[in-house]
Design goal:
The protein has 2 domains: about 110 residues, Periplasmic binding protein-like II (D-Maltodextrin-Binding Protein, domain 2), CATH 3.40.190; about 120 residues, D-Maltodextrin-Binding Protein, domain 2. Strands 1, 2, 3, 4, 6, 7, 8, 9 and 11 form a 9-stranded mixed sheet that branches. Strands 5-10 form a two-stranded parallel ribbon. Helix 9 crosses helix 10. The chain has 10 helices and 11 strands.
Length: about 270
């Protein structure tokens, strides 16, 4: 009996320790656009809260929201608002999707640095992506076919582009679909005749950002809404968060959290 009691106490102790450890873990999954914000935010947050471990991944807005509904992540990052069908699916499982706007973003069209075109209109972008404009020559560029790079349909970035640029049109069937902002940058940097779109935080020297309707993408034009493809970025929780989830969301909305947003070249909400 003494031996059995010792074993039982050991199991209870180990379970308690494991339970405590799990309670201190925080899992974040979702949008690749919000990924740099979540990663840098987690890094700073863990320095302030050394007892909490934060695990961050970027599998796409839709996948992140599904993981939150299924209970496999604590926070879902999303570059779009939750859809009605996602809200309904969550309710069926007793989950209320609560969105917390943590940053702003501008989706920017990018080309290879050697492309001489510097400005484009929203109508021209629509016609490039629906297939009506097929060659750069039609825009004052070289007599070469346009290689169109787009995001896959599970991407929040794609859905915003579809809504604000394509306006219901379908992407041309020969478009190359990539899974992330990073892949879009790499693809366009290697193709002199490609065009794509990325979140403002992914801008780098290997690609050239085009003006749209004579507007330049910046924190000011994104914040005042004059940039034509502006959007809020979200972190979703299940209902009103508590514990470390609430602590992380509060941190992201704080002065230090908004500083993180600016450091990774997105637009703070304040």
């Amino acid at each position: 009996m003494k031996k059995i009691l010792t074993i039982l106490l050991s199991v209870i102790f180990v379970s308690g320790v494991m339970g405590f450890s799990y309670a201190e873990d925080l899992r974040i999954d979702g949008s690749t656009t919000v990924l740099p914000i979540a990663q840098k935010g987690a890094e700073v947050f863990m320095k302030k809260n050394p007892s909490v471990r934060v695990f961050v991944s970027g599998s796409g807005s839709g996948t992140g929201i599904k993981a939150l509904i299924d209970g496999t992540t604590n926070i879902a990052t999303s570059s779009r608002e939750a859809k009605e069908k996602e809200i309904a699916s969550a309710k069926e499982k007793g989950v209320t999707l609560t969105g917390h706007k943590v940053a702003l973003d501008g989706i920017v069209p990018v080309v290879h640095p050697s492309m001489k075109i510097t400005d484009i209109t929203t109508e021209q972008l629509r016609d490039i992506y629906n297939g009506k404009i097929k060659k750069w020559k039609e825009l004052g560029g070289p007599d070469r076919p346009i290689s169109v790079v787009s995001r896959d349909t599970s991407s929040g970035t794609y859905e915003v582009w579809e809504e604000k640029i394509l306006k219901g049109d379908r992407v041309r069937p020969d478009a190359l679909l990539v899974a992330s902002n990073g892949q879009a940058v790499q693809t366009i940097a290697q193709n002199k005749f490609a065009i794509g779109y990325i979140g403002i935080g992914y801008i780098e020297k290997s690609v050239k950002v085009l003006k749209v309707n004579a507007k330049t993408a910046s924190a000011d034009t994104v914040r005042d809404g004059s940039w034509p493809v502006s959007r809020p970025l979200f972190m979703y929780t299940s209902g009103t968060p508590g514990g470390n989830i609430a602590k992380f969301i509060d941190f992201m909305l704080s002065k230090d959290g908004q500083k993180v947003v600016n450091e990774v070249r997105y637009v703070s909400i304040r």
